[in-house]
Amino acid sequence: MPKPTNITFFSINMKNVLQWNPPEGLHGIELTYTVQYFIYGQKKWLSKSECRQINRTYCDLSTETSDYEHQYYAKVKAIWEANCSEWAETERFYPLLETQIGPPEVALAASEKSISIVLTAPEKWKRNPEDPTVSMQQIYSSLNYNISVYNTKSKRMWSQFVTNHTLVLSWLEPNTLYCVTVESFVPGLPGHTQPSQQCVSTLKDQTSTLKVK
Amino acid sequence: DPGAVVPAPQNLSVHSANMKHLLVWSPVILPGETVHYWVEYQGEYESLYMSHVWIPSSWCSPTPGPECDVTDDITATVPYRLRVRATSGPRASAWSALKPPFNRNSTLLLPPRMAVRKDGSHLVIELEDLGPQFEFFVTFWRKAPGAKEHAKVVRSVGFPVYLGAMEPGAVYCVKARALVRAIARRSAFSQAQCVEVQGEALPL
Amino acid sequence: SLGFRRCLISVDMRHLERSFQEIKRTLQNKDVFQNVTILSTLQSLQGIKPIDVCCVTRNLLAFYMDKVLKDHQEPNPQIRRQISSIANSFLHTQKTLQQCEQRWCHCSQEATNATSIIQDNYDQLEVRAAAIKSLGELDIFLAWINKNHQETS
Q: C-alpha A35: how far from its chain's center?
């Protein structure tokens, strides 16, 4: 019986989900899967009860791999009736260097000629909502943001990298729609997820309204 | 003449600018024969601890021309020994070694090319992409007596970078220099480029 | 580049990370002893105080330069190219580290213990296995350097 394929960790903000493809050539057959994980340097493979004989092709191992300074392996095997495949194993997974950083939360406030941008750093995954929040900034001190601003009227865009969380764009054109895209960025980390994008319009120019009167 | 000795390449030298390093030598002429060249390198680590180890160059093992881009081989700021030999069919020349060894901290750093633009009231620049090791130290100022000079380190290249907001009716100037931390050096400043912002001063 | 607290030297971090990323899978797949680690005795490395960063860095560079890289024989030309790049980068870092050693590279007992644990771990394995494992754990050392420095502005 062939093994599951393409077994990898998919990690964003330390939410570490193991995912895989079904074994080749067994489409349409009702398979189940069992997952185990291993902490590099420890002694034995460990099971996760919620991922024993499951139908889905993913298993959330965030809790089991929450110490991001350790390294891990995981493996999965396919089961069909009395048959089971060999284990398919991941590469060594190092959350600290392999997680992707999600975009920050972005709050925009516009006036006639300016837009103020307030960023909130993405949060590390947490087991329970009541657990204390850990910002990704606390883990990666070199976290910074690439802010791109697109003027929908002039069809022009420019960018800038910032490390602080507040920014005021001044001397903008009144009554104009601006779209702001923000990406998180840590030098040395694998890339980043989909940026967050929001658009806001600057207010009408009050001086021109006065002239009209 | 199949028995003739293949002469070793002569006049090896490295032309290096903006962290791009080109090894060149005089071609070996063997009438009626096709000559190829093989380039190998050794970092200071190999010279010190494993002097028998020579590593084939990334792009020139072999190469037809009397030059070799060794940029991808020279990846640390230590002296590198480089050597070349010529081959014609099964016959090979002796190795010719570059003397003295090459260190990338001797590269010629040129001021960066830069496009300065205004987008409405915003001062925007675009810098040429010189590779991952480059950063740019950009200064900009309003052309007026006593005006303060602002500075910014820019790492992104190849797309417009926002410098600051400009007041209507003013002239703003920008200049930039390249920084390469890996060799702890920087280029001279580029020529200053100025732009003027249309529009009258704000009504009271 | 990166400064080690009060000992400002340059490490071309991005290039080192790219070089290691190219060979990580091959090196780690050759390491068959998953239940043993050399560098990731994290307790000893995570607890290093800022004042000891320079000393531990110097000791770990020496560990790689004088032991690991010498004990490892690499047949694959592509892997050898990347290992040469890493070795020469470490050599450059060692040289610049030497310039500030007298005044800033203080070694506390804790720092000395931390690197002795790593040395002991290495010596418990057969030498070729120990060398391949240590090379496969370069990401731990690079992440430690990244975390314990301030990017020089």
A: 23
The Cα angle at residue A74 between residues A72 and A95, in degrees rounded to 5: 35
The span from the CA of C31 to the CA of C50, in Å, is 32
d(CA A144, CA A147): 10
Q: Report the predicted TM-score, pTM, of the whole model to 2 decimal places.
A: 0.90
Backbone angles phi, psi at C53, to 5 degrees: -60, -45
Residue A140's Cβ-count burial label (10 Å; 0-12, 13-18, 19+) is: buried
Q: From B44, C152, B76, select the one nearest A187 (Cα to Cα).
A: C152
Contact between chains at C77 and B55 (C-beta distance less than 8 A) = yes
A158/B203 CB distance under 8 A: no
Q: Which chains have at least 3 CB atom pairs separated by less than 8 Å from chain C? A: A, B
> What residues of A are in contact with residue B155 (Cβ under 8 Å)?
161
Task: Please name the residue that has the structure tokens 């837009």.
Answer: A115
A156, A158, A161: residue with CB nearest B155: A161
Q: How many other C-beta atoms are found inside a 10 Å radius of the C-beta of residue C144?
A: 22
Between CA A204 and CA A208, with CA A205 as vertex, the angle to 5 degrees is: 120
* A194 C-beta neighbours (distance < 10 Å), count: 11
Residue by residue, DSSP assigns B122-160 as EEEEEE----TTEEEEEEEEESSTTPPEEEEEE---SS-
Integer CA distances (angstroms), B165 to B32, B162, B168, B192, in order: 66, 9, 10, 18
Could you give the CA distance from residue C122 to residue C67 in angstroms, rounded to a whole number?
9
Contact: C69, B181; criterion CB under 8 Å: no
Q: How many whole angstroms from its chain centre is CA C46?
A: 14
pLDDT digits (tens, 9 = 90+) for A28-76: 888 999 999 999 999 999 999 999 999 999 999 999 999 998 999 999 9
Shortest CA distance to A78 belongs to which of A35, A47, A16? A35
Q: Digits of tens for pLDDT over chain C (153 positions)?
A: 555 555 655 678 888 999 999 999 999 999 999 999 999 765 567 777 888 888 889 999 999 999 999 999 998 999 999 999 999 999 999 988 877 666 667 788 888 888 899 999 999 999 999 999 999 999 999 998 888 865 433
User: Per-residue pLDDT tens for B171-185?
Assistant: 999 999 999 999 999
Burial letters A34-56, b for 16+ CB under 10 A, else e: bbbbbbbbeeeeeebeebeebee
